[in-house]
Amino acid sequence: MVTSHNETRERLIAGTYRGETISNGYAETLRNPLAVYDGLLDRVEQADVIYKKIGTALKADKYDEATLSIEGRITDGVKMGILTADEGEFMLAFEKDVLDMVHVDHFPLEHFGPVAENQDTPKKAATTRKKKADASEPEAV
User: Fold this and answer.
1) 30, β-bridge pairs
2) 3-state secondary structure of 135
3) Rounded to 5°, angle at Cα 12 from 6 and 17
4) Average pLDDT by consecutive 10-residue portion of the chain (141 residues)?
């Protein structure tokens, strides 16, 4: 009920500040998440039509299966003539705004504790130590 512009949503968020920017109390101005979400809702119907075009092309095997990201599929769709340049530009901006909306944690990994080492880096060759000859064994002649 709150994922589209409708009467119920408007009633639920009545009185909520919906301006473009908000202050975080630290002399920093941020984009208001509700205003960002409203902007996405205003464009979602147009995006749905374009998503369907991409989906139809995927089902028709027009895309390389290696292209997994939606941004790659949009770019390839414009190159192949599945999408117009305007549709591609619109969708890239829409996808960027969607990712900005859902990506909320901007903390460096070190904030949460020690960062695991990269397992893809080649390991140093292990050095082996030669055993010292046991004093009780006779020397070979």
Assistant:
1) 22
2) coil
3) 100
4) 70 73 71 82 92 94 85 94 96 91 69 66 60 56 53
For 23, phi and psi rounded to 5 degrees?
-100, 140
- Could you tell me if 21 and 39 are in contact, meaning their C-beta atoms sit under 8 angstroms apart? no
Task: Tell me the three state secondary structure of residue 56.
Answer: helix
The token pair that represents 63 in the structure block: 């895309």
CA 6 – CA 19 distance, rounded (Å):
19
Distances (CA, A) of 72 to 46, 63, 81: 19, 10, 14
- The CA distance from 36 to 39, in Å, is 5
Q: What is the DSSP letter of 26?
A: S
d(CA 20, CA 124): 53
Question: Reduced to 3 states, what is the DSSP secondary structure of residue 71?
Answer: helix
pTM (two decimals): 0.61
- DSSP per residue over 73-125, as a string? HHHHHHHHTSS-HHHHHHHHHHHHHHHHHH------GGGGSPPPPPTTSPPPP
How many residues are recorded in the chain? Answer: 141
